[in-house]
Amino acid sequence: MQSNEEVVRERSMKFILNKVMALGKEIIKRDVEDLIIAECKKVMQNITCEEFETLMTILSSTHLINTPDGQKELVELLASTAELDQFFNPKDLDQVNRFITCLDFAIPFFSAHVESTKFIVYICELLNRYTLIKDNDKQFIILKSLAESVPYCGKLMNPEAVVGQVYQALLDLVTVPENDSNKKVEDMDLHRVEALLYTFHKLGKQCPDFLSKDPERQKDFKKKLLYVGTCTQTFVKIVRQDLKEKGEEDVINDPIVEKKLEGLRLACNINTLIKELFNIPPRFKATVNLSWIGGATKSKLAQIIQEGKKHEPIIVDGKSKRIDGSNNSQQIYQPPKDKFSAKFSNNTTNNNRRGGG
Length: 357
What we know:
Blueprint: H1 6-20, H2 30-43, H3 49-59, H4 68-81, H5 93-106, H6 117-126, H7 136-149, H8 159-173, H9 190-203, H10 215-243, H11 248-253, H12 255-278, H13 301-309, E1 315-316, E2 319-320, H14 337-347
Antiparallel strand pairs: 1-2
Helix pairs in contact: 1-3, 4-5, 5-7, 6-7, 7-9, 8-9, 9-12, 10-12, 12-13, 12-14
């Protein structure tokens, strides 16, 4: 496998995967597995993406997969391969692809026993420039992977700095339009909002006074979230109206209904997180299942629609901020249904290696 010739390396790896590992545990004893693991580690840094996937499949067939210590070893190997000690250059396509691939393989191993902390700190540090990645899908993959990994983040050395990086990314993402009826409201990417807001909510537990100790910071944040809240509540109202006559079979047979349910789950998640953060002091107790993990099933139709009914107007400083325009001169975001659904479909990629978050 250490050959400089790509063809030789590729054939060697596939032979080990398809012939040697297929012999089973009765023939491939622990000492042989240890030798294979050691050889895989030697070549991990200088291989193609396809070879990397082959090596990870080999390693996932060994005893490493069976214990927390083994899984931790795999995550450490992936962190090393991802070069988390190097500055992230969003214009370096090879580095971007390497990082995304390594993180993608690492996510299924994260657990209460295998922390994601190194990856979390690294991603949060690059949030100030991830939008420089030319491929918008890759931008979203990084945010989505951050959200999937953050439940397994351990104790941060400098939580205020890390939370601050997520905070700034959220502020940069959300543009509140001026009170000008002639100006078109910007169509936000609510999927990115969900990913960053979920991450902020999770990491905020380690720095609960981040917002409250800085009045200006809290004011700016609430202004942005209030606008997001009006957008999502409007969307919930529209989708609930569209779905109220639908039956359970429509979820299975009608892809448009399924997409609307996914969008509804997304909007409800954002509203739940905003309500938590609008409390004084902010709360970090709500359990949210990320909208892109798992699809809506027929048994979930009534539940999801009912959850949408529970979302009341956002409360700020004891006053209800309505979204019906009765006491708000700001133009209200009316999400174009087809565009919203298409955006969700285009930005969401299925990955069989991932389970939940």
